[in-house]
Amino acid sequence: MVFVSNRCKNYTLSLVLFFSCTGFLNAQVEVFPPFWWKGMANDTLSLIVKTEKSNQKKPSFSGEVAQIIEIKKAANPKYYFIKLLINSNSEDSILKMKFGKYKVDYLFKTRRKRNRRSLDQSDVMYLISPDRFANGDSKNDHPKKLKEKVYSRDSIYGRHGGDIQGILNHLDYIQNLGMNSLWICPLLTNDMPEASYHGYAITDNYSIDPRFGSNELYKTLVEELHKREMTMVMDMVYNHVGTEHHFFQDLPDSNFFNFHESYDDGYLQTNYRAATLFDPHSSKADSKKFKDGWFVASMPDLNQTYEPVAEFLIQNSIWWIEEFGVDAFRIDTYTYPDQKFMGELAARVKKEYPEFFIFGETWVHGPEIQSYFVEGNPFNKIKSNMDAVTDFQLAFAIQESLVREQGWTEGIAKVYYRLAADYLYQKPENHVTFLDNHDLARIFGHLNGDIQKMQTALGMLFTIRGIHCL
């Protein structure tokens, strides 16, 4: 392991746990995940622990709730990788950990019983970009400690002020539209210096962005949805984080990200060609560039083949399901991360929650490429364990059908051919279907404001198989 020292900076944000120690008040220790549960199907837990300063003393542990399987010190001497075996039968709930003068009481909670259901064709999903929806609490619009300072509804890339309270205030409106499921673009902290409104450059995987609210307010939103028999779809990002992420600012070791030594600053941009994963004529270099290249320069590419990274991402996913009761995941940039990891992630989630629904963003071109990533594809040797995809192929076809005359394969004929390609899927009825989304131009603009065509588009969407999303 090579520790990239020139990328290290002091990190003071994120889930900072403060504990009173002898001679050290408010000594800083960070533990990921910040707490866990007894009674999980998987009885092991991998912790990443960061102390405020380098510590040469061997950690010590006491408590019957868990025993130590392995302790590894990372290349960065502030970090430890610790693997535990959980004793779910123990009446104890605290594992006492000591790192030199730093002490931590690590909590194991008791699991709560929840009534969960999977998504299906009876669901209609409402997609919200939270910063642009409704401002329910103006007091959180200008947090002083965050880096971005552009707050203006006139700014395309600046913050507009929408938040969780704004969503809570409008649940009657959403429900009266006929929606019974919410997919919200990432609400996690994006402490980036600019253009953080979209949420896909996460800098803290365990906290809600303070401009949106808090972890407790998010829990309130999920609980309110469940009272209304509505479901929460959480938008997850496994391919990358933002450059201000605490692991990038102060690297545990250089294996956490896909750095490219032959390029300045280790940066190589992806070629965005998902077909290179299975194209029999593609070069290994092109395939590697797709998988390991960065989505954009501000989003470092995570190395999911490295066990500490894989465990961090998988456990973080389970943590949000167990603690907050979310019902499904939409996975951003699904095709880009290591596909063996993606299959293992879904398998681990479904081991704990068999009914949990997972669908991936597959913004590709052609049904043969889109179908490769769904469970059951005979040409994909990796078991994906994924329930569905976002059906971009149908969205593109519906858009074309209303602005182009019919031809052999053009116009409305394209809708037919895209539906005929359902033979490529075991459960095409699980596809998430849509006319537009947060990455595409609005369908109404695409149709030049033609009301009749808009009505036709909606009529097509709501009478075609799939889980519909507006």
CATH superfamily annotation of the largest domain? Glycosidases
Count of runs of 4 or more consecutive helical residues:
12
Question: What top-tier CATH class of the largest domain fits best?
Answer: Alpha Beta
N-to-C span: 46 Å
- CATH structural architecture of the largest domain: Alpha-Beta Barrel
Number of strands: 19
Q: Give the overall shape, derived from the CA principal axes.
A: globular
Rg, nearest Å: 23 Å
Task: List unreliable stretches of 5+ residues.
Answer: 1-27
Q: What is the spatial order of strands in the main beta sheet?
A: 17-16-15-14-11-10-19-18
Structural class: alpha/beta
What is the share of helical residues?
A: 10-25%
How many domains? The number is: 3
Question: What's the short version?
Answer:
This protein has 470 residues and is α/β, with parallel strands linked by helices.
Q: Explain this structure to me?
A:
The chain is α/β, with parallel strands linked by helices and 470 residues long. The protein has 3 domains: 5-110, Sandwich (Immunoglobulin-like), CATH 2.60.40.10; 124-247 and 297-469, Glycosidases (TIM Barrel), CATH 3.20.20.80; 259-292, no CATH class. It is 23% helix and 21% strand. It is built from 12 helices and 19 strands. It has helices at residues 164-169, 171-176, 215-227, 246-249, 284-292, 307-324, 339-352, 367-370, 392-401, 412-420, 443-446, 451-463; strands at residues 17-21, 24-32, 36-38, 44-51, 60-62, 66-73, 79-86, 94-99, 102-110, 124-128, 181-184, 188-189, 204-208, 231-236, 328-331, 357-360, 388-389, 432-434, 467-469. It has an 8-stranded parallel β-sheet. Strands 1-2-4-7-6 form a 5-stranded antiparallel β-sheet, covered by helices on one side. Strands 3-9-8-5 form a 4-stranded mixed β-sheet, with no helix packed on it. Helix 6 (307-324) packs parallel to helix 7 (339-352) and helix 9 (392-401) runs antiparallel to helix 10 (412-420). The longest helix is centred in the last third of the chain and has 18 residues, at 307-324. The protein is globular. It starts with 16 loop residues before the first strand and ends with a strand.
